[in-house]
Specification:
5-stranded mixed β-sheet, alpha+beta, Fumarylacetoacetate hydrolase, domain 2, 18 strands, binds manganese (II) ion, 232 residues
Length: 232
């Protein structure tokens, strides 16, 4: 191959919680409507036949405890607190047991969303890219190895806006558990190290304005934070 015309920005990476290494971000998959109460507040039903997904480009990744400028093109930018998981081994057409074995680590994550655009796209049966693949919209706190986290079950997941609790649920409230999600997705993609999956948000999503500070946590994982600043 002849010389590349220009260099792309380096891929983002998420630190491990013990500071030992960074996990490079390849693909970002996100599960939609994975908590019954959140589907209800969005005015839709959970699909019990199979999970569904949207994606974000890797450069949508945003560091933990950073400042994000209010994005262009929206007047209703929302927080969504989620459990993130990172794939640690190639996995294709996996059983649930094989899927679980391929999970490298977990983290707190935010799926920041242009809700007005997402809902307009949804109403017109168009893709959600402008609503969801927002620059800086995939926030990842440091990753904790799956063995340290243990089984995903009744751990609390919560988010506060300027210190006021907005989202408060249990990971066991997920419609599709992590093994089912990884197994299902592996029937459509050759999942591999670098793939991160956001597993959906509980009820209580809402808007932010410049100056707001989001803080969130999941039992057993490092906390997450994001500050919103004025639009550029
Ligand atoms: Mn989400």
């Amino acid at each position: 191959m002849s010389q590349l015309l220009f260099d792309l920005p380096a891929l983002p990476a998420v630190p491990m919680s013990d500071g030992s290494a960074h996990y490079p971000v390849g693909r970002i998959f996100c599960v939609g409507r994975n908590y019954v109460d959140h589907a209800k507040e969005m005015g839709v039903e959970v699909d019990r036949e199979a999970p569904f997904y949207f994606t974000k480009t890797p450069w949508a990744a945003q560091p933990n405890e950073s400042v994000l400028a209010y994005p262009p093109g929206t007047e209703n930018f929302h927080y969504e607190m989620e459990l993130g998981l990172a794939i640690g081994a190639p996995v294709f057409r996996a059983s649930k047991d094989q899927a679980r074995a391929a999970i490298h680590s977990y983290c707190c994550a935010l799926d920041m969303t242009r809700r007005d655009l997402q809902l307009a796209e949804r109403a017109k049966q168009r893709p959600w890219d402008l609503g969801k693949d927002v620059e800086g919209s995939a926030v990842f706190a440091p990753l904790t190895p799956a063995q340290s986290m243990g089984d995903i079950g009744a751990q609390r997941i919560h988010l506060a806006l300027n210190g006021n609790l907005k989202q408060d649920a249990r990971l066991s409230d997920m419609v599709w558990n992590v093994d089912e999600i990884v197994s299902h997705l592996s029937h459509f993609y050759h999942l591999r190290p670098g793939d991160l999956i956001l597993t959906g948000t509980p009820a209580g999503v809402g808007p932010v304005v410049p100056g707001d500070k989001i803080t969130g946590g999941i039992e057993g994982l490092d906390p997450i934070a994001l500050t919103i600043s004025e639009a550029e």
